[in-house]
Amino acid sequence: MTGAPRSADPSVTVPSAVEPPAAGPVAADPSLAGPSRTGPPPGPGAPPVRRRRPRPGLLLGAAGLLVVAVAATAVTFASGGHADRATSPDRRPPSTTKVTRQTLVDRETKNGELGYGTPRARDSRLSGTVTWLAPGGATVKRGKTLYRIDDEPVVLLYGGLPAYRVLRSGVSGTDVKQFEQNLAALGHTGFTVDEDFTSATADAVRDWQEDLGLPETGQIEPARIVYAPAEVRVESHGVEVGDTVGAGKAVLSTTGTTRLVTCTLDVEDQRLARKGAEVTITLPDGTRSTGRVDTVETVVQTSAATTGKDAETDTRIEVTITGDDAKALAGYDKAAVDVGLVASERADVLTVPVAALLTLAEGGYGLEAVQEGGTRIVAVRTGLFADGRVEVSGDAVTEGLTVGMPGD
Questions:
Q1: Quick one: average pLDDT of 390-407?
Q2: Are residues 320 and 356 in the same domain?
Q3: Contact 78/11 with Cβ under 8 angstroms?
Q4: Terminal-residue alpha carbon distance, the chain
Q5: Does the keyword Membrane apply (predicted)?
Q6: Cα 58 from chain centre
Q7: How many whole angstroms separate alpha carbon 262 and alpha carbon 253?
Q8: Torsion angle, CA of 266/270/275/278, rounded to 10 degrees?
Q9: Helix, strand, or coil here: 226?
């Protein structure tokens, strides 16, 4: 904030100059700056009076005390409700500005990446030789093959619950219902979609296995299914055709098929990560579009350990943004973009440049109001800070009020 702390109440006036004390006898020595002390003159024959020259430090100290005393008097006077009477006709700020009414937006621009979101590795749960992989960039839908191990397919189905056990006649549970929903969506009938795996379900499974070229066992091995919320896009391969894999080996990675912008923030910028908040997206060619924050996740990134040092961890905020206009984002497969994130917004508020604020000695902030005949210090309450301006309010703050600004 500008300058030394100023003392004010919402109506405190600070005079521009301190009036000198009433005139009195002045010391004969012209070097004496202050008024002399009064007393009886020396009698005849008395030794001459020796006047001691005041030390500069004492003079400065006395002057400082006098200024403080007068300032305190001014504060007391102004606090009594007579602020408008004491103005500063000789003191004017170097420059001025107006209190204006506008909408303040706390927005910051961050780096983002346009793509399809964070890839997810798909690990094999089988051991064998990789005989086929869905091509990179391909879209795989429900019931289609992601990859083949020993020339037998591993199939994509839709759902949020991972396959974790063998499904067979007599088994019940939510995972049974999820599988039966997929089986019905693929056109297989003759069973009831519920949480019970019945003999009718087993018959439908055998038909499905026959279509896939799998042994017709009537039961489902969890290693043959990969669940995802919807269709997926193959991002990259972790192995090549002909490689031998074991359980836990990443075969390929997938993403969703919707164009997304991913933005990673420092923890101190968490105020910008508000789910549902509107954002702006600036593409490499300068085209601007809009979107909204879809997901906000806290992620811990671990750096590789170096010789003699442990690995370091770093906590970040990962924000996923969906575009409002898919066509506007369709021209790029991957691209670096600028993301305008909004933390908060205040509509129709009174604002001034941040530089106009004064720090008050009694705490808080004030403005130097410029009026006909002088200036006065008025206390203000501050709100949102954004774009070099600050929201202000107070009894003496009105739209169009002229306030002082610091000089260059």
A1: 93
A2: no
A3: yes
A4: 14
A5: yes
A6: 54
A7: 17
A8: -80
A9: strand
| 86 inside domain | no
The token pair that represents 170 in the structure block: 């007599």
Q: Is residue 211 part of a domain?
A: no
* 91-95: long-range contacts, CB 8 A cutoff, minimum separation 24: 91/16, 91/17, 91/374, 91/375, 92/370, 92/375, 92/404, 93/368, 93/370, 93/375, 93/404, 93/405, 93/406, 93/407, 94/404, 94/405, 94/406, 94/407, 94/408, 95/404, 95/405, 95/406, 95/407
The answer to whether the beta carbons of residues 312 and 302 sit under 8 Å apart is yes
Tally of domains within the chain: 2
Yes or no: say if 108 and 265 are a contact pair by the CB < 8 Å rule.
Answer: no
Tally of residues, the chain: 408
CATH number, residue 378: 2.40.420.20
Let me know if residue 74 belongs to a domain: no
Nearest partner of 203 among 215, 217, 214, 213, judged by Cα = 217
pTM across the whole model: 0.60
Sheet holding 120-123, edge to edge: 120-123, 250-255, 232-237, 139-140
CA 373, CA 332: separation in Å to the nearest integer? 63
Domain residues for the domain of 391 are 95-106+346-405
In a domain, 127, yes or no: no
Distance, in Å, from the CA atom of 91 to the CA atom of 94, rounded to the nearest integer, reads: 10
Higher pLDDT, 368 or 51: 368
Distance CA(217)–CA(153), nearest Å, equals: 15
Strand order of the β-sheet with 145-149 is 225-228, 152-158, 145-149, 128-133, 244-245
Per-residue pLDDT reduced to its tens digit, 74-99? 333 333 333 333 445 557 788 999 99
Are both 361 and 333 inside the same structural domain?
no
Return the number of other C-beta atoms located less than 10 Å from residue 403's C-beta. Answer: 24
Count the neighbouring beta carbons within 10 Å of the beta carbon of residue 239: 16
Tokens of 41: 């003159």
Does residue 278 contact residue 342 with C-beta atoms inside 8 Å? yes
